[in-house]
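Re: beginner question about structure tokens

> Can someone show what the tokenized structure looks like for a real chain? I only ever see the sequence side.

Sure, here's an example I had lying around. Input first:
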Amino acid sequence: MTDCTENHIESYNLMKDYNLENRRLVIGGVAVVIVAIYLVRLFTLQLMSDDYKKNADSNAFLKKIEFPSRGAITDRNGRLLVYNQPAYDIMVIMNEESGRLDTTEFCQSLGITKEFFIQRMNDIKDRTKNPGYSRFTQQLFMSQLSNEEFSMFQEKIFRFPGFYVQPRSIRQYQYKYAAHILGDVGEVSPSDIEDDDYYMPGDYIGKLGVEKYYEKELRGEKGVQIMLRDARGRIQGKYQNGKYDRRPVAGKDLTLSIDLNLQALGERLLEGKRGSIVAIDPRTGEVLCMVSSPTYDPRIMVGRQRGKNHRLLSHDLWKPLLNRSIMGMYPPGSTFKTSQALTFMSEGIISPGTAFPCHHGFYCRGLHVGCHSHPSPISLVNAISTSCNGYFCWGLYYMMGNRRKYKNVQDAMSMWRDYMVSMGFGYKLGIDLPGEKRGMIPNADYYDRNYHGSWNGLTIISISIGQGEVTLTPLQIANLGATIANRGYFYTPHVVRKVQGEPLDTAYTRRHYTKASQRAYNYVVAGMRSSALKGTCRMLGKYDFEACGKTGTAQNRGHDHSVFMGFAPMNEPKIAISVYVENGGWGADYGVPIGGLMMEQYLKGKLSPASEAQAAEFQRRRIGYGPHFAGDDSGTKKRRTQKPSAKLHTDSAAVKRAE
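And the corresponding structure tokens:
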């Protein structure tokens, strides 16, 4: 009995010691866990989170961003086009505002409603709309206050804790011209901030035109001032006497190649019309003017009304925001015949003396492409001068069917396309503006897909006269004129002539040679000069400079487009130009006279009294708006996406004579 009792007591003591040991382990484990949690939290606060650092810094320092002056923009003659004007932004630090604001007085000082105030404060805190939000750093509350608005607010700013004024500048556009070239500046979007950490919410960025393309050159570099504050948030001066401050670096000035007087005349001439005028200096590739109509006044795209005005423009059925000069893809019409003459002659398909019949058009195997009355048969120079459809249809027909030179039609088509690409068609030229389109030059694969490999020269005959599947931008048509003026080469067109302190990009100083021979170019020039003296461009014969030209009347589902391409003077060319007037009819109706006026303005420096009267007449003319204007390229986009036509009909409404 005693032994049992002793054993029981011993077991009890052992169990007691075991429980105490377990308790010590549990308590020790809990203590270790608590210490570990504190260590992890301390690590997170000190190394992985900057919230407390921001809080401490925001109490001690105020970092004032200093915005650089954006680069100015002038035309080729030094006339100021774009400059900067002082403006002020209202910034807020949410951690300092903390609901201590007299909202009514604040709203009255800025001329805003309480509803606007509440909505704006909510938007600032919304990280989906403002991904860079922090309650410790300055956030944009209201932008671009004028001097008058700022003066009224400044008197009371001491009453509004957490709110500060940030000086900056806004863009001003001196003239109502060149909106599509200059572009505009607007507030950054979330994607802009994500793409480039230079930007913060409330910053501004180029949205269109040169302002967008040369954004990094124009914007400069921000500066910063670090100000020391006391416990009550009052500014005590610069931290360490400005040791860590950084001065802003102004943006670089741009000199455009644009001639403002020429640009202004072009915009006058296209008032009330849809279309484009592009002029290039063939010696350099500098764009002398780029008119897209309808246009808008760039001066309305500044300040707090920019968003509203942009919405109005974007909903306008005439599409004034569209830069037709580089975005409009049009059938080039008979201006394209010059490229065909260069190709056929360089490939040996024709010679200058080769004559083809044209009895009111091209007739072959039941296919008829109409043409106007002129002597027949006709040779190369006269075919260009009179704009004969038949001549160039025969040229393409014989090139596609030449089995001694090309093994099949696909091989011939590939060679044809190589010539077109070398002339700057089918791909973007690379102008220094955003949004350029490439146009359309078909290849053999395109026709193989659409005709299951069964096609020939007659199937695609319309491309020989700039119709069918072929589309070009007005810039490409003007560049064709520059290439012919240079007898076989061109420079990439560009609108910026000089960037302050930088050499011009070599992309704009290299010559691009075409596949066509210089001999072929000489004959095409002769044909274009003949056209100006006695052919479809004979209105140009009145000028005392030797102008060369080629008209076009581009087939369209509505009224046909009026087209012109030319250059002057013939032997020392200084300007090459394209004119495209949508629904303007014959090339000689609008294209030629407008082209002549533009060349006179540039070469002479002004218009003669008779020419000024003619310009005023064209300025008054309007081309009406109708249902057939529904697309941004008057049906050419629709034409490009449908299956190519197997033939051109003889009906005059369906197959328009070239001139």
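Each token stands for a local structural state, so reading them left to right follows the chain. The two ends are 135 Å apart (CA to CA).
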